[in-house]
UniProtKB/TrEMBL annotation:
Keywords: Hydrolase. The active site is at 159. The keyword Cell membrane does not apply. It comes from the Bacteria. One of its GO terms (biological process) is carbohydrate metabolic process. SUPFAM superfamilies: alpha/beta-Hydrolases, Galactose mutarotase-like. One of its GO terms (molecular function) is isomerase activity. Belongs to the 'GDXG' lipolytic enzyme family. This is Acetyl esterase/lipase. It comes from Klenkia brasiliensis. Residues 86-283 form the Alpha/beta hydrolase fold-3 domain.
């Protein structure tokens, strides 16, 4: 599978390892291939992460001796509290995988948590279908509960093993124990029907394929499933607290997302950690994917917090962890990338059409492409303004104006995620020139024919806070060369433009004819208002070119638009797309007081805009 260059680069490395397809349909062959792949993924020069002790032994299982491997981190009680015992159930579709394939993961879990980890070599399908793997897993959990009766007991696993962990948690609830302190589930397999959208969206090319899962389910459940194997939609009340980690590019993504939602609805404490930019199996990809290593550590840290465990002091100098650079959504042929530096839009593609003139992962874009502009959009003359008798000074750009707010390079976090939505957010802390504290969240919803963006702002400070908001998408209708946007046709629902000099208002206004038609050589960098709205209260900009037609619509919270043909951008980026910027206020609004939003402490504001497309 050729990997899109906008994807994380480690995905191509994974494909190069021969990871797809995993299943040949012969269980014995598949087990050898999976073991070989597991070794290859560790990379050249791999050395096992040292732990204090590793013990291979057997315990009593339903069919006789059951092999387990016990990892000890070397940490005993801390502050009088016993370290946790984690029973780890490996992934592999209930048919492949063993103690060796998941040895690196279990070592990492033991060391990160300062825990005892019990890895279980449960019987495998198709020779031993359900309920044999579940019965073995439950036997190991019961043995661990008897062996370490005072320790917090966690059932955990990845993929098929996470599905087994859910079944074990349900059996423990319904059969009187043992009592579990938590369940840790990495990208669990929970839906034998394989009916959720992510199964089709991520069907091929990214290690685990949907056809692999179909074979695994057929092997595991030849006689059909039950509530232990298909828990979604059943009674989940009374289960232990859960940490649920999912991966963006994973056929099983929606199953884990849904389980987290249903746990919360059942009153179970749950922490859901999506994996932006990551694939199924990322717990075992840390040698080739730095983002996987970061996220795995974060998932384990969340479990430690949930258990109330003291942290493990690192032996080496600590470094700050980093989030992935972006979050993806995919619906039908449409895909959108949200940049977690600044919270704006990095890319929107529909099939082969880049609807937004965006930029590559990690690049610093010119012209604030796709950016979120807050607490003011556009320019502020000299960076100077005053608020209620206090003169304030903001840093200025080379042109002598303060440009486009304070969030362009600020880290955002993923706050929430479903199969078609992602919410990112940050807190704008007070600083010289803007002594106010704002909590900012952006909701992105992707449908097959439309992107909906809602910006939300809350005054998280103690004084009234003035601000303005803008966003800066560059609309691309197939014009690849400099100047080619001139062939596009434009309609703007505005009747009034601001008189500007160098992008800053001079005090006057003029009539604007929004029926622009073919753009031609016309240079646009106009702040526009007096918007013409349809009966639903929305105003709509329409742009058409060789690739298709775009419609950008704004609700009543956006009384201004900035339209910019990109004439001052660097060579190779000029006049190939059109920036259409929803704004709550015009340039220099902080100084002029024009259409500023002012929020009292804890008061909120929200405004939405949409972008829809119709390919040629």
């Amino acid at each position: 599978m050729p990997i899109d260059p906008h994807f994380p680069p480690f995905l191509q490395r994974l494909v190069d390892l021969g990871a797809t397809p995993l299943v040949r349909g012969d269980a014995a062959v598949d087990r050898e291939r999976y073991r070989a792949l597991s070794l290859a993924r560790r990379g050249e020069g791999y050395r096992p992460e040292p732990v204090a002790d590793v013990e291979d032994r057997t315990v009593d299982g339903p069919a006789g001796d059951l092999a387990v491997r016990v990892y000890r981190s070397g940490l005993g009680r801390v502050g009088g509290q016993a370290r946790p015992v984690v029973v780890w159930l490996h992934g592999g579709g209930w048919a492949v995988g063993d103690l060796e394939t998941h040895d690196p993961v279990c070592r990492a879990v033991a060391n990160r948590l300062g825990a005892i980890v019990v890895a279980v070599d449960y019987r495998l399908a198709p020779e031993h279908p359900h309920p044999a793997p579940l019965e073995d897993s439950l036997a190991a959990v019961r043995w661990a509960a008897e062996r370490w009766p005072s320790a917090p007991l966690v059932v955990a696993g990845d993929s098929a093993g996470a599905g087994l962990a859910v079944g074990v948690a349900l059996r423990c609830r319904d059969e009187g124990g043992p009592v579990l302190a938590a369940q840790l589930l990495a990208y669990p397999g929970l839906d034998p029907t394989m009916a959720m959208p992510s199964v089709e969206q991520n069907a091929t090319g990214l290690f685990l394929e949907s056809s692999d899962m179909r074979q695994f389910w057929d092997w595991y459940l030849p006689d059909g499933g039950d509530r232990w194997t298909a828990p979604l939609g059943t009674d989940l009340s009374g289960l232990p607290p859960a940490v649920v980690a999912t991966a963006e590019f994973d056929p099983l993504r929606d199953e884990g997302d849904t389980y987290a939602v249903e746990l919360a609805a059942a009153g179970v404490h749950v922490v859901h950690l999506p994996g932006p930019g990551l694939v199924h199996g990322y717990f075992g990809l840390t040698e080739i994917a730095p983002a996987a290593a970061v996220r795995r550590a974060e998932v384990l840290d969340v479990l430690a917090d949930l258990l109330g465990m003291p942290g493990v002091v690192p032996e080496e100098a600590a470094w700050p962890t980093t989030e992935p650079l972006g979050a993806w959504l995919e619906r039908g042929s449409a895909r959108v990338a949200v940049d977690l530096r600044g919270g704006g839009l990095r890319r929107l593609a529909v099939g082969d059409w880049d609807v937004l003139d965006g930029y590559r992962t990690g690049e610093v874009p010119k012209g604030r492409r796709g950016g979120l502009l807050l607490p003011w959009p556009n320019r502020l003359r000299g960076g100077r303004w005053s608020w209620r008798g206090t003169d304030l000074q903001l840093d200025t750009a080379a042109g002598g104006a303060a440009m486009h707010g304070l969030l362009s390079w600020q880290p955002f976090s993923v706050l929430a995620r479903t199969q078609d939505t992602v919410t990112v957010g940050t807190v704008l802390e007070p600083r010289p020139g803007y002594p106010f504290r704002l909590a900012v969240a952006v909701d992105y919803r992707l449908d097959p024919d439309r992107l909906t963006v809602t910006v939300r702002v809350r005054n998280a400070g103690t004084h009234d806070a003035p601000f303005g908001v803008g966003m800066h998408p560059y609309l691309h209708v197939g014009s690849e060369d400099d100047g080619a946007i001139g062939a596009a046709s434009l309609q703007v629902p505005a009747r009034t433009g601001l008189d500007l000099d160098g992008g800053l208002p001079t005090g006057g206004r003029h009539a604007f004819d929004g029926a622009v038609g073919t753009i031609g050589d016309r240079a646009l960098d106009d702040a526009l208002t007096d918007l013409v709205r349809d009966e639903d209260g929305w105003a709509r900009v329409r742009l058409a070119g060789p690739a298709g037609e775009l419609e950008l619509a704004v609700d009543g919270r956006w009384p201004w638009l900035q339209v910019y043909t990109g004439d001052t951008l660097p060579e190779g980026q000029r006049r190939r797309s059109l920036a259409v910027e929803p704004m709550t206020c015009p340039p220099n609004a902080l100084a002029d007081g024009a259409d500023l939003v002012v929020l009292a402490p804890e008061e909120t504001w929200a405004g939405s805009w949409t972008l829809s497309w119709r390919p040629a």
